[in-house]
Amino acid sequence: MTYYxxxxxxxxxxxxxxxxxxxxxxxxxxxxxxxVLEGKKVxxxxxxxxxxLHRRFGGVVPEIASRNHLASVDGTVKExxxxxxxxxxxxxxxxxxxxxxxxxxxxxxxxxxxxxxYALEIPLISVDHIKxxxxxxxxxxxxxxxxxxxxxxxxxxxxxxxxxxYFDVKILGSTVDDAAGEAFDKVARVLSLPYPGxxxxxxxxxxxxxxxxxPRAFKNETHLNFSYSGLKTAVINYVHNAKxxxxxxxxxxxxxxxxxxxxxxxxxxxxxxAKREGINTIxxxxxxxxxxxxxxxxxxxxxxxxxxxxxxxxxxxTDNAAMIGLAAYLAVKEGAENSPLTLxxxxxxxx
Length: 351
Prior knowledge:
The chain is an alpha/beta fold. Helices cover about 45% and strands about 15% of the residues. Strands 3-2-1-4-5 form a 5-stranded mixed β-sheet, with helices on both faces. It starts with a helix and ends in an 18-residue tail after the last helix.
């Protein structure tokens, strides 16, 4: 039998099972991650971060990211297997992020995953990074079911989604320029806060007051779209004008004011999207989902509107491989086919 015949046969057998071992690999940006799952249960979730390497540049440098993925992927995968007390021979399926993300970074994970699947003669499942973030909500959460509204907020994407099934995701609104996480990073840089900007803005905002008037980050409420460029530019102009006048800038107040508007519109649009679609369940996804103001604000808004909210643990909001493995599990349940060995990375891939 050829590899394809063996993989297809094994995949059909896995469809009938609730539990089998999945090895997942994520390398879309600056985190080399590997995880092992037994069905929906996460046995290990290892992340080799590159943040210290990129911090000196104020953001991710694609070439540096790619080289470090290459140096880290094998060790990270083996660490995930060791933590799960398993070996390569125990793995039934390989899952890998193929997009969206940085092309060079994605290629490292995709190439490694294809080689591994072929060598082990097991199925390979391609996973969309965004669907991975959405799927993080199903990890150790048996109460979430389709359909639901997903508030997606990350460094590269911001959207309100109607999730009918793994393969059926409808975009109700999205950013027309900067993503929420991107805006956090750029505002942090203007305030001379280190990369990554999200955690630093949140930290600074805790001791500040939202007293600086800034525009709300929306473009067209009819379509629930976002536009963060205006909010970002307003902060930049405020800081530059203050410096030009020789005034001292209260970093905490600027951070608090920015965070209020950046987070507020996310919550407003998520609630509005749920009302329009007649759905009372909202799930949070993406790296910005680790922001405490967003998490608490969304919980409060859902409570006030009689809605149920699902929020993953903070470690599952940022890039990780557990969400990729769970996404593959859901995809197989819905009939996903084995990915070919010609599988390529697609930096523009999205829901």
